[in-house]
Amino acid sequence: MDTLVEQYAKTTREVVQINQLLKAKMAEIDQILDTASKLASSMTNYTGIAIKPKASSVTMSKFELVSIDERQFAMVMITAGGTVKTKKVKAPGEVTPELLRRLAELLNENLCGKGADMALRTLSELFNGCLCGLGADRITLPIIMELENAMGEGAYLVNPAVKCVYEVMNEIDGGEMRLAGVNRLLNYPEYSDTQQFGELLGTLEDQDEILDLVSSADSDDINVLIGSESPVKVMNNSALVFKPIKKNGRTVGVIGVLGPRRMNYKQVLETIDDLVGNISGMIGSETPAQNTITGKGENDGGE
Questions:
Q1: Is the per-residue pLDDT at 169 higher than 50?
Q2: Is residue 235 within a helix (H) or strand (E), and if so which, with residue range?
Q3: What is the DSSP string of 110-143?
Q4: Which of 31, 169, 260, 283 has its CA 20 to 30 A from that of 197?
Q5: Cα distance between residue 135 and residue 272, in whole Å
Q6: Is 239 exposed, middle or buried (0-12, 13-18, 19+ CB in 10 A)?
Q7: For the packed helices 158-171 and 141-151, what is the interaxial angle rounded to 10 degrees?
Q8: What is the SS3 assignment for 257?
Q9: What is the pTM of this model?
Q10: How far apart are CA 85 and CA 30, in angstroms?
Q11: Helix-strand-coil percent breakdown of the chain, rounded to 5?
């Protein structure tokens, strides 16, 4: 019993320390992105955009299970992106240390692709997304049935555990967009129609269409979407220019500018390239500094 208590205390301390460090790191990136959007706006006289893109598939890198009492246990889940979540799970049957050990082993082997005896990975590995497993869309009924079969008499623990995993995956990282200088758009004749401008503001406020657009972009270079070629229909009089910030193959942020179709593209491209290059240097990412452009839309030229 003393050994179990000591192990729980050690695991709890490690999780708290990792969570604190990760929160500090993410807060730092949030602040950098927020500042970059304001700079993009002031340097171009258009609307600056900073985006944390939606996760295409949240995956887990590590599970730890800790007994609370005879019918409850805690699931400590660490995602490939470094987020740490702890959830309390109620079991329909008895919870024993041996059953939890076996369940943790199976979850790590089948959902993370890592053995349960794997030591807790370093903060940098977790944050950089070096470990990955199955997304929610790939945790299928056959996998759940295999887990139940492998658990034998403890099969009743599988369903509540997997349900908890689903819930956490769906909670994490729905994306976020920050805007700076939206009022600057009123300086341009393209936005003189109050109804159209109101529809654009509604889309920006809702965020989902822009987040989906940016999150689904394939190119790691500067993306240029002009006018009616944009999938966001209310942007028919606008142009969106953005570039992702990559770290170890994962997009950690996006910097962009929204303005009229006849914006000063040379200035905008240089500004975004410089900002992303500086941010990349600050966080040690591998985003290329060269100004390569991926574009769609009408060629309206610059101001």
A1: yes
A2: none
A3: IIISS-TTPPPPPHHHHHTT------GGG--HHH
A4: 31
A5: 32
A6: buried
A7: 140
A8: strand
A9: 0.58
A10: 20
A11: 50, 20, 25
